[in-house]
Amino acid sequence: MKNKLTVLICAVSLSLTSCGGGKDQSVQTSDSVKQSSGSSLLADDVLKYDKNAIDPKATLTEITLKALGTTMAEMKYDQSTLTVSAGTTVKLTFVSEATDPSMPHNWVLIRKGSLERIAQKGMDAGVDKDYIPTDDDILIAGKLLKPGEKEEIIFPAPPAGEYQYVCTFPGHSKQMQGVFIVK
User: Fold this and answer.
1) What is the pTM of this model?
2) Over the stretch 122-148, which tens digit does the pLDDT of each residue have?
3) Distance CA 114, CA 82 (A)
4) What's the CATH architecture for 47-182?
5) FRET label pair with 139: which of 6, 85, 98, 153, CA 20 to 30 Å apart?
6) Which residues of 74-109 are buried (b: 16+ CB within 10 A; e: fewer)?
7) Euclidean distance between CA atoms 11 and 54, whole angstroms
8) DSSP labels for 81-109?
9) Where are the domains of the chain?
């Protein structure tokens, strides 16, 4: 029985690896995955990303990002684009410079193209979860900061590509968002 199972597994593996022909078709498949997901990442790369797998030998990239503004009309991140190199460890210091107690902020790194859905799910998650939902498109999430607070978020840079970051506090995502580029 074990021999038949081994033969079956080998046959299936061989047929799967031999399907599709040459290199050109695999490139075409990769492009179709990119287009259908709305992301510059392959689905497999996202599944392989482990936010806790920090390489102690990796170069450290330090970034300070501030949440600015005291009203809904003024609120924004001080940078709309953050760029890091693949293979580095990122140390993001997130600072809330808001002064109004009704203006908490967070920083959530997400797959490109999922912003509106994540923002809606954030509202649904509620204050007990810092408006951060459980979702496979969320790569990194900081805590909800009150005015004057700061947080250090340390994580390995995700695979090369374009991501987005957003504040998921209700009503903030339209203005508090940016692009996170990994080269």
Assistant:
1) 0.74
2) 999 999 999 999 999 999 999 999 999
3) 18
4) Sandwich (2.60)
5) 98
6) ebbbeeeebebeeeebbebebbbbbeeeebbbbbbb
7) 38
8) EEEE-TTPEEEEEEEE---STT--B--EE
9) 2-37, 47-182
